[in-house]
């Protein structure tokens, strides 16, 4: 197999870290993304929409391995966009890969495909997909994962695998730390939702990258990874509010202190979400505390990655404490007073 691969979504947070690691490991990389934000030696850039097969094909020329880590931002509430990109677009990516003779595809799925807003403790990959997904993002990530895993076909020589990370954080993350700091700057990070003891997985980006590359390199016709999904986490569940506090304090902000009952905040978030939906034709406002975020902040959701350890030889390469320190140091512009 040649060492030429493509990263769809390679301009994004995870995608770019993946591209950098692939280059280190001697791969040449073709990046396909709707936006271009950097230039790197060893990377050929193709700008386009993944829903467009003709635009994808040149990026897949002579490529044996594809990583698909593109998605609209989870915070969006544009159902049509999620369906078009995550479902129809993923169908197009699969067709284009088969047409171009790609042999392996690694999808970035999400551990959230089994999350319905209630506790998950040490969840394994055999948990059923969420019957009532909590938002359009999750709903379409489920369909996307099914499409990719069902496309695995040893006879045709097209092998697929899905990685399910959870709560990715690290340098250049456009979501977790920026939203947290923005909420703190607006004086809204004073409260802990619930009793503050709920355990959650947060995964340092380099561990997620490591899991993707192991999956790609272990994916062979005789491998147990064919057509399977794998949880990739830091394997160190942490209290949600301890993690948030450590990041906030590291950046010079106060940690949240006062407790609010979970169901009260969840009910209010639901009400606000409904109001935003009803009033959308007249005024547009985006609540910070969405039902999804409140559910993520107030429940247990951590996952077992024994399957990845066993089949892929996975072990986190960066511990949680170290990951937090490196993340905090990478955001000097978000420090209090900066
Ligand atoms: N950030 C997190 O905590 C988690 C993320 N994931 C998954 O990881 C993947 C990467 O996420 P991030 O790097 O955090 O997001 P990101 O938003 O930084 O990167 C996504 C990339 O996809 C590109 N993209 C979006 N629509 C496109 C289209 N139609 N055609 C071509 N490119 C398009 C964007 O331009 C962007 O560069 C996504 O599939 C996401 O669902 C899964 C679990 C947790
Ligand atoms: C306002 C506060 C209550 C919370 C601020 C931090 C949140 C923005 C993040 C905490 C957990 C994160 C998370 C995701 C996005 C950012 C958070 C909500 C995902 C939804 C991203 C996409 C996924 O696949 C699952 C993630 C779970 C954790």
* Terminal CA distance: 49 Å
Give start-end ranges of low-pLDDT stretches. none
Radius of gyration: 20 Å
- What's the mean pLDDT score? 96
Ligands present: 1,4-dihydronicotinamide adenine dinucleotide, ligand LHIR3OJJ
Question: Which percent bin holds the helix content?
Answer: 25-40%
Q: What proportion of the residues form beta strands (DSSP E)?
A: 15-25%
Strand order of the largest sheet: 3-2-1-4-5-7-12
Question: Number of helix segments?
Answer: 11
Secondary-structure element series:
EHEEHEHEEHEEHEEEHEEHEHHEHH
Gross morphology:
globular
Helix/strand class: alpha/beta
Q: How many strand units? A: 15
Described by strand count, sense and barrel closure, the largest sheet is: 7 strands, parallel
Brief summary of the model shown:
This protein has 338 residues and is an alpha/beta fold. It is built from 11 helices and 15 strands.
Task: Tell me what you see in this structure.
This protein is of the alpha/beta class and 338 residues long. 40% of the residues lie in helices and 17% in strands. The protein is built from 11 helices and 15 strands. The strands form 5 sheets. The protein has a 7-stranded parallel beta sheet with strand order 3-2-1-4-5-7-12, with helices on both faces. A two-stranded parallel sheet has the order 6-15.
